[in-house]
Please model this.
Amino acid sequence: MSTRDAKDRLALLQGTLDLLILRTLLFGRQHGQGIARAIQESSRDELLVEHGALYPALQRLEAQGAISAEWGTSENNRKARFYRLTQKGRKLLVHETSRWRRLAVAIGNVLGQEPGEV
Amino acid sequence: MIFFAKRRKQADFASEIESHIAIEAEWLREEGLNASDAQTAARLKFGNILQTKERFYESQRILWLEDLQKDVRYALRLVRQSPLFAITIVLTLALGIGATAAIFSVTDAALIKPLPFPDAQRLASLYERWQGDLDSLAPAYYLDYRSEAKSFEDLTAYRHDSFNLGGENRPERVLGAVVTPNFFAALAVPPQLGRTLDPVQDKPGGTRTVVLSYSLWKRCYAASADVIGRSVSVDGEPAIIVGVMPASFTFPDNAGMWAAARFQVPEHPLRPLMDPSMSRSSHYFDIIGRLKRGVTIHQAQAEVDVIARRLSKQHEDEELGDGLQLVSLRDDLVGNTRPAILILLGAVGVLFLITCANVTNIELARGATRQKEIAIRSSLGAGRLRLLRYLIAESLLLSLAGAALGLVGAHYALRSLDALLPPDVLPPGGLTIDFRLIAFATGISVLSTILIGLFPAIQVANLDLNSTLKEGSRAVTGGARVNRSRKILVVTQVALAAILLIGAGLLIRSFDRLLSVPRGFSPDHVLSLQLSLPLAEYRTPTDRNRFATEVLDGIRSLPGVRSVALTSRLPLNPGGSQRGIQIKGRPSVPGGDVSRSYLVISPDYFRTLHIPVLEGRVFTDRDTANAPGAVVINQAMARHFWPREDAIGKYIKVDRLDWSPVIGVVADVAQQGLDKAPRPTMYVPYAQDPWPALALVIRTAGDPKHMASAAITAIHQVDKDEPVYNLRTMHQVIASSVQVRHFRTVLLSLFAVFALTLAAVGTYGVMAYTVEQRRHEMGIRLALGAQPNKIRLLFFGEGLRLVAYGIAAGLLASSVLTRFISGMLYGVQPNDPLSFLAALVLLVIAAFLASFIPARRAMKLDPANILRTQ
Model:
């Protein structure tokens, strides 16, 4: 477990959590805790997922039909609710990813080249 | 989406959080923490569990729906708290909505519902303009237009008729029509069973083919399918049933049967075996054309105008009208009732507005006392929108309850309207509550909700919490603004009621005038009935004469019969035969001088109906078939042709009859209707022109109704297969001739009484409330020595002032509006002072009553008591 202080971490931009959840689920079904941890790890501890935000986001995506959920058992034989990407979710992921890339490039252009990259 | 998706239980979510924390704790243990620390850390890390659960809950529920439930619950609680208030509102709304719905259904039946023919907007009636009137076309012209006018897919001709349908049991009188075979094709209605009439002309003299209506088929043939091809007796002749029409098809008028025309056009009723196709002078059938797709009625009119001009050149010597007139079938069928129904609709709209104003007033009165409640809710954090919704939910609940009750009322009202309404306005099957009516009622109840909810809502929006709560503590509620809007509502109500009262007054006066019009005959103790002799059985004049003589003799010998006579047409029956006449010694005008009303009667006709003989003599038993012709004329005819000379002894020639002398002049009889000027009329002895269609009038010593069965027996002794129909006393004949007017008058009077009551209740409500509001002030006044009488006068004066404003506004509006109903009036001017005065008096009495009781209550206040309690 990371020991980095929470306030050093980057706060998630509005709407990006959905994208990250979808991306995480691309590798297979996962429960809420697993999703949070996966995001944290794959962002090299830069991003912390607030649990208070995670579950409403999962709820929202489920309602949209982007993910589906069912109860199952974790690797430690513990009961957990597993989420899985649906066909609709895959499409949404592709769409959102390209949107995000465009946004990132656009913001990068506005901000100019990074110092030291000259 | 969320609404329909399967919703997750909160417990499910709670266990997901539990499992989340458990997994976290497990991982922490793997990282080296002990069990209880791991558990605590995991919980801490998760943060506020309760808040997450709450967020889940918020996201899952449908807020507005739950709020609505709450609103409805509040509203219901309110109803329980003040049931009288709720009942008043619901009843008022039920009356308003019920009346509106009932009138809507009548209007809908007459104006809105489509004719039961496909593409009905392409159907038009063809008429000939003739002396400012619309007349039917002569057969030869019909055939000309049929072959020449390119605007029409088809032209069909039909003649109203009634048939004696012989059955196994008693003969039946069936209303129907003689139609050209393309009749059903032109109206585009296929038969339900069998086929319609053959496109080929039925051979004259051959067996006729007939089509039955659904109701006749059910009534007389038990809806059996093997009726097709069955031979029946129609007017004494054999006929074959070839088809049955669907229940929705009863055109024209409530037709029960359609018989194929014998020739290219329907045969003439009096000369059924003569081919009339070449006639250019006889007018007796109606024509409907189906326009080709894409052709407008104006284009068709332009085309027939051209044809008409050419035809009038070709047939200059013939009698010809002033061109052709196309009328859309809808206008033709319902046109004459349209203004009356629109006016009723206007009246009912006014009534609806009064209802809403009244309910709003009640709401406002209570709103003032409720301001405190609302202020408290508001200060506890209820948003404005939330409060608005709460108020709207409440009025919606009351409106819908009112609408439901109103619909039940409308259902019963329609039944009685059915009886009041003239049958030609009614759709087949009568007036019913249908889906659209329910939708309509719901619609107007929503409208009323908006109208009613608006005022309290505005109040809420402008509510000043501080002062309201403070005011409430001092029990001096209701600002001047609210009071003003309540007073405006009362003034409006009174004004609207005044308009309706004046309208009703004018109609009542018209009706009264109409009934006091000299009728020219005495209806007391007279029974009438109708007969129609089948020409197949009564082929010759001698046959018909013999029947008439035997029937008259039979009835005359019955005990209780003073006298009996027959006529070709009863008084007060518009229409009838018109004949071209010539007068000896005067040049004849092409096409006949003027067509006059022409009646054939038996000698005792004038004596039986007590029609005064003014000059000369009337017919006797000596005026038989072979006696020299004789004519009796009415006063109008004498005045028209011989204004300055004596008509007696002058010679007249009618059609094929011989020159006949005028032997007597009788008083004018209201033949066409009470509101129509009497036409110049001539009477001819029945024996000399025996018609197949006749009516009997029987003057009795006692109640004429008791004579009915004896009269029928006497007729059946002469011919047991002769159906007797339309048995009515002459008073009933008069009543049915003014049925439409009676209907309008009764309806508008009901509205007016209703409006007056509502306005009075409204005024009372405002006055009672004002007294309640100013109790404190009055207590002080009384304590300081004011006279109770003065106090009473103060309130009394205020009530009267309100009503006076309303009356002034109502009278002013009426002086403009009554012009629109001038077409419905008879013998009174739209600005008839008596009607205005009567409305004024009624309103003043209502105002007096409505202000008197609250004012008296103000007078009886006990100052000590008031000041102590407040």
